[in-house]
Design brief:
Order of helices and strands: HHHHHHHHHH
Number of domains: 1
Helix content: over 70%
């Protein structure tokens, strides 16, 4: 199969995973009369890092399970096919962000965001996010070839670290237009993506030969077009696209945290 077919498969798997992710967040208010949503809000108020961890696990489970199913069905025999599969997921995510209308950014600073700087930040984030897509799909492939759950758990841990921090920033209402916040977020993202890539690379030689040996022939193969500068300036918007988090639910988490902080402050004064 050509690289284009593998990229299309990666994009389809990403679409399925994000669909499951959005469905889960959307159904939370409806499950057991909103009990799940209330529990999530209490968790966000009690321990924002724990809530961020739960969100990261859910993000990883949905995206990785969809990709794993497609990889098991298509049985890639070479690392280049897995790279194309991951690139398909990353590039489709870029396309979705660019063609989706977003509101203007929320900022607590007095300075207007620089357009060139915002595009550069967007390009950097999309670069290491796409690298992360490739690396985690590579770890899934390793787990499938060797029938080993450990690489799959490493990929899931990567999602907890990557998307979990972004969820934590949303809960804490970080100002994504603040250069210091964005710089630290980028350093974290690059570190996680590079670490995942290095782990995949260490397993690669043995996995490549094993996959080729096990490969069996199969008869089954698997709005807008231009973005405005304001769209990419809305950094919170492309963070939320990656997380698959509903804006209303995120706002409820933020409100729960603020309310809990206010209650603690009142108790402290008493």
């Amino acid at each position: 199969m050509t690289a284009f077919v593998w990229m299309a498969a990666g994009g389809a798997a990403w679409t399925l995973g994000v669909g499951l992710k959005w469905a889960g967040w959307s159904l939370a208010p409806r499950i057991r009369g909103g009990a799940v949503e209330r529990w999530l809000c209490r968790l966000a108020a009690w321990s924002p890092p724990s809530m961020a961890g739960v969100a990261g696990v859910w993000s990883g489970l949905t995206e990785l399970s969809a990709s794993l199913l497609v990889l098991l069905w298509m049985q890639p025999a070479a690392p280049s096919q897995v790279v194309a599969f991951g690139l398909g997921a990353g590039l489709l995510e870029v396309l979705i962000i660019l063609i989706t209308p977003h509101p203007q950014p929320e900022s607590t600073s007095d300075c207007e965001p620089d357009v060139v700087e915002a595009w550069a930040s967007f390009a950097l984030e999309r670069t290491y996010a796409t690298l992360f897509h490739v690396a985690t799909r590579g770890l899934l492939w390793i787990g499938a070839v060797h029938a080993d759950i450990f690489p799959i758990l490493l990929a899931l841990a990567g999602f907890v670290l990557m998307d979990g921090l972004a969820h934590y920033g949303e809960i804490r209402r970080w100002d994504w237009t603040d250069r210091r916040v964005l710089r630290r977020f980028h350093v974290w993202g690059v570190s996680v993506a590079v670490a995942a890539t290095m782990m995949w690379w260490c397993w690669l030689p043995d996995t490549d030969s094993t996959a080729r040996a096990r490969r069996r022939p199969s008869g089954v193969y698997a709005g807008r077009f231009m973005a405005r500068p304001g769209d990419v300036l809305s950094i919170r918007a492309w963070i939320r696209v990656r997380l698959g988090a509903d804006a209303g639910l995120a706002a409820q988490f933020q409100h729960a945290v603020a309310q809990a902080a206010q209650e603690r402050s009142i108790v402290g004064h008493e």
